[in-house]
Amino acid sequence: MEQYREVLRLNPDEASANLNxxxxxxxxxxxxxxxxCFARTLRSRPDWSGTHLNLARALxxxxxxxxxxxxxxxxxxxxSNAVVAFTALAGT
Length: 92
Description:
single chain; mainly alpha; 77% helix
């Protein structure tokens, strides 16, 4: 994860580095920091459905069900084949 942090030190808006760092942080249970990375990713790449899905998962785990629902719905809107997002929406 340090390589992503170094990229972001030089270019804080680099979408791929923010996304990958967020995924790593989420996998390590650092959900709040992960949501910050996903949100930074979406500022420059709001069309990345996978980022909406990752953010939705993290928000759900943090208990922000309304925020999670918003991002699951956006993931589905952007990618009608987003099966994981459809499944999550169906369970709400």
